[in-house]
Amino acid sequence: MLSLVMAPKDVYFKIFKIKPLKSSAMTESHLSNLGFIKGAVIKVVNENDGNLIVSIKDSRVAIGKDIAKKIIVEEM
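Above: the chain sequence. Below: its structure as tokens.
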């Protein structure tokens, strides 16, 4: 298991868990609505200074490195 920020590009992973975010509960709810839930399949499409563009649920989403560090994934 590793943090999403350390995941290599173009490899499919499954979300193992999302650590609690200190920023707000609204952020966690928003991530959940975007598909960032335990068991979801995710792939890093591009990386720029730790900020990621990921493919999840047939769409692409940009997330910051502070949030990507909180998403723990495991290789499929």
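The chain has one domain: 2-75.
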